[in-house]
Amino acid sequence: MTGHIMPTYNRLPVTFDRGEGVWLIDENNQRYLDALSGIAVCNLGHAHPAVHKAICAQSEKLLHTSNLYNIANQEVLADKLINKSGMSNVFFCNSGAEANEAAIKLARKFGHAKGIEKPAIIVMEKSFHGRTLATLSATGNAKVQQGFAPLVEGFIRVPYNDIEAIEAALKSNKDIVAILVEPIQGEGGINIPASDYLNRIRTICDEHDILMMLDEIQSGIGRTGQFLAYQHNDILPDVCTLAKALGNGVPIGACLARGKAAEILTAGAHGSTFGGNPLACAAGIAVLNTLEAENLIALAQVKGDKLRAQFSEKLKDNVHIVDIRNKGLMMGIELDTPCAELVKLALDEHLLINVTNDTTIRLLPPLIINEQESHHLVNTLVAIINDYTAQIH
Ligand SMILES: *Cc1c(COP(=O)(O)O)cnc(C)c1O
Asked: What fold does the segment set 50-293 form as a domain?
């Protein structure tokens, strides 16, 4: 069936034909509850009418002009992002990896402007920043890097959630120009750092005149109960990258900057043919308007905490549960045993989930999930987990 597709993915044996809110419907009219949102992309669920209308209307007028001209939708979306984020300007691209590429280039240019010839960026163990050469080099996962040497140099790796390790790295290397970190590690296992971790990184970056760069590609756009996860900490980074849910399925990425980081990428220093085109930005505008109109960001916090409480209650007698953690609707259920098989077992029960870091079930349901759908998610998944762990000793 996938004979002419490069085998870069081990695909599950299902083909979806259409979606309705949190539901995906396959070729045989079977309905599946999507608790993954296409990996944190469809935060408004599938076939949201506001997104549908916006991209239909835009496609009747204009799809693409190139960045050689002003693009009205890009300016509208940038204004909205700046208002919501506290940052000051935006570079638009088409994916998360590209947004991080822009951030990495920005940091290097910032370093060169300070006279640093070989600028280095602190990155974290278990991080994920994308699949391009620079972003896989920044990623803290040997599997992602396997077979792609020579890697891009200029990354210094420290453990996540370890301020002392950052301070030690800064002491031993005068070429560090930035710290690139996820507010919550997604691919790495839904790792939520100490509540003051980002505040302390902010202070360190100020003291050393280096850039604080947050990868909010998975945690952003309302997922954690704030528009951006750093807003839980009342700080502003110097650079912030977005993608995934920004277009609810229409590809779009963004690199936001502020203060001394805002004017570094000048004319000719960076670019993108498709980046910020009228269609993608129409989707982005519709997404941000809908998050507001439906109060979905505040609700993400309430719904996520409720979900976690229900899982905790129903799994309290299962000794194989190590931890259940969430920030809003970014949730992990960690087992004491590898559990990748659960993905297929859940699919058999028409539930779409994911497992990261071998032992953590990752849940990223659409923010529009309602009470009844949440109950269905909890009841179905608890039964699957209990069946699975009953078979191990
Ligand atoms: C998904 C993801 C990326 C990469 O995004 P792509 O659009 O797949 O390039 C980067 N960083 C984080 C934190 C992600 O979750």
From this structure: Aspartate Aminotransferase; domain 2 (3.40.640)
- Enter the pTM of the model: 0.98
Domain residues of the chain, as ranges? 16-48+299-389, 50-293
How would you label 12-34 residue by residue, b for 16+ Cβ within 10 Å and e otherwise?
eeeebeebebbbbeeeeeeebbb
Question: pLDDT (tens digit, 9 = 90+) per residue, 271-322?
Answer: 999 999 999 999 999 999 999 999 999 999 999 999 999 999 999 999 999 9
Pocket test for ligand 1, best of 126, 132, 160, 218 (most atoms within 8 A of CB): 218
Mean pLDDT of 158-179: 98
C-beta separation of 98 from 129 below 8 A? no
Say if domain 16-48+299-389 classifies as CATH 3.30.420.300: no
Q: Name the catalytic one among 84, 109, 126, 244.
A: 244
Atom number, ligand 1, closest to the C-alpha of residue 97: 9
Q: Tens digits of per-residue pLDDT, 219-265? A: 999 999 999 999 999 999 999 999 999 999 999 999 999 999 999 99
Q: Which ligand 1 atom is at minimum distance from the Cα of 253?
A: 7
For residues 329 and 367, the answer to whether their CB atoms sit within 8 Å is yes
